[in-house]
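HOLO CASE FILE
Compound: thiamine diphosphate
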Amino acid sequence: MEEAAVSIKDMLQKDQILSSGHRMCAGCAAPTIVKLMGMALRGPTIVCEATGCLEVATTIYPFTAWKIPWIHVAFENAAAVASGVIEAQKIMREKDRSEYEHVDVIAIGGDGGTFDIGFGAISGMLERGHDVVYMVYDNGAYQNTGIQRSGATLPGQETTTSWAGKVEPGKRQRKKPLAEIVAAHKTPYVATVDPYHYRDFIMKFRKALEVDGPAFIHAFSPCPRGWRSDTSRSIELAKMAVEVGIHPLYEVIDGEEWIMSGPSKRIKELTPLEEFWALQGQFRHLKDPKWSDFKKDLQDQVNHDWELLKKRCGIE
Amino acid sequence: MRPGCPCSVSYYASDTLTLVVLVEVTIIVEDFQKFAADGEVHTAVIPVESEHSAMSACVGASAIGARVATASASAGLALMWEILYCAASMRMPIVFTVANRALSAPINIHNDHSDGMGMRDSGFVQLYCQSSQEAYDTTIMAFKLAEDHDVLLPVMVGIDGFILSHNVERVEMLPTEMVHKFLGVRDPVQPLDPKNPITMGPLALTDYYFEFKEQQDRAMWRVPEAYKKVEEEFKKITGRSYGMFEDYKTKDADIIILAMSTMGGTAKAVADVLREKGEKVGVIRLKMFRPFPSEEIAEAVGDAKAVMIFEKAMSFGAVTSPLAMEVRSALYNVDKRPMVVDFVVGLGGRDVPPTTFVEGYEKTKRYLEKGQAPLYETLGVRK
Ligand SMILES: Cc1ncc(C[n+]2csc(CCOP(=O)(O)OP(=O)(O)O)c2C)c(N)n1
Ligand code: SF4
Ligand SMILES: [Mg+2]
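Model generated. Tokens follow.
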């Protein structure tokens, strides 16, 4: 995969695509993610978004924070809407009914809209090979509707549908390995990103736009409201997610070539999960000694996944 | 190409049609894909993984200004349900052919109107057709109606599953250029356009949501006017038009049969036979179910003694069945209210032969003598 043709310095100068005054919570990482995405844009672009926090809070009628064309239809269909947009644009251009040689089409969904209910539509879009960049901003739960568990919720995480209690440690199940599943579609470009590593984020997003055919970006998105974390520590949490190995940064080309990205490659040893949990109310219950075996299992799982990823990326 | 198959509609409208979104379920879809494969149509085809995605992709494509069509029925239509409301509310002029079929369970592939009635409040204009020719003509007109700037609503064109969707009959096709000229190119009002960015499909809460619905409702009531205009133009080039409903020998009728789609044909044949026997029977074959032409229906019913409805859908637990509910409401304000009799027939593709109409007719005469009729009843079913 070639490096993007534009320098990061130029990209950082770009006009913002999201105005201030949107109504996301203080400290929410999602608007930062959109801002970084905006820096990677290269021309006429249309955004198709799924229902969720970002959609709801940035477009409360009669206001909108979006400075580029944007459409929302429903919770589970951003990928299908994007398919319609890209195909219509292409054929209208062929028929000389569009002034744009090319329009970049981006679909955005939350983890609920992507890992769970929108999964079929994404799989369909990937199979059809539509030239769309799909980005999930993953805040680990259905935050907009009150912190319900999703397929992206981490084991040990407390949500309003995976309570921690006398006999339960929060969610028990693993997180769905979505980037891997998307890669398994032989998707031309898959990358995980994180708002702390903004250069890595922007360069990957740009690559995603430049690649022919579908691309998938998995962005880690701290949510102070749902995670019960300090609003000033979201970007720090994003950094830690990479260090503890729950959101390693990598790329997968054509579902075959696995490349560990710089920030993850530089990690000698994973930071213990404990440090990541300590900053969030949603893991507070794990301090109870009765969950020490459960915690050890979670740490083992992350270590195991990390070793597997390193092997896939040809490290060691 | 099967002459007479309504799929040929898409073929001739094709150069003006930009995009078709399809799940492989109907003959319409298969044949259209064949035209595309042979390069006979210059239309993008998106073979989607589900009907939910089909309607979603239609909305996306329509949002950037393309002329868009899709087709479905039954379970597939049911899966689209959520997005039907979005399509209408977002004012996307999508043309949607529905080969009307029964809903599960039990799973069944045959004709009735449960799917169409299920989507009746979605905000789609609904036009139900009686013949292949009418299906062909209506589909062409539907684009013009949907895209009319006074309307901007999606239009459902209903054809009875199997009875019409798999029918073979002669159809007079229009020359391609004629269709092009009639439809022109879609002129979208507010497309998604990078040079003129807008936000579509926002959140609207207690302070604005209601206004969206108010406007949508007004648009719906501009349909009859726009439909008349479209039909007049169509008639000029083809000599054919259908009206919001077909009025058959109703002038002096004592009893009027009211039915939709292919049942209209049987009803007219039955009326002819009964008339030969001296019975004063007429038929209203309703084509436009949404918006419902209530005043016009009331006028056409005139001072008949009874309106006898034959319909292929139920509304479980309702006062009566969907079509009868509309007709009863439409007639509520007339001075000499006729008796309204409602027969639910043909569910799951059960045949509705002329004898069923005659049975209903005999019952209706008895009800008239008694001065009383049930709110609805089923005919042609084991009880
Ligand atoms: C079909 C459907 N089911 C449920 C909802 C209600 N709903 C709206 S947003 C949402 C959760 C969104 O979660 P996610 O995708 O993770 O985005 P987040 O709000 O966390 O950013 C739900 C359940 C809906 N709009 N549509
Ligand atoms: S609830 Fe979480 S994801 Fe939603 S706006 Fe607030 S911080 Fe962001
Ligand atoms: Mg979420």
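CASE NOTES: The pocket of thiamine diphosphate (ligand 1) is lined by residues A 51-54, 75-76, 109-113, 139, 141-145, 150 (CB under 6 Å). The longest strand of chain B covers residues 95-100.
CLOSED: yes
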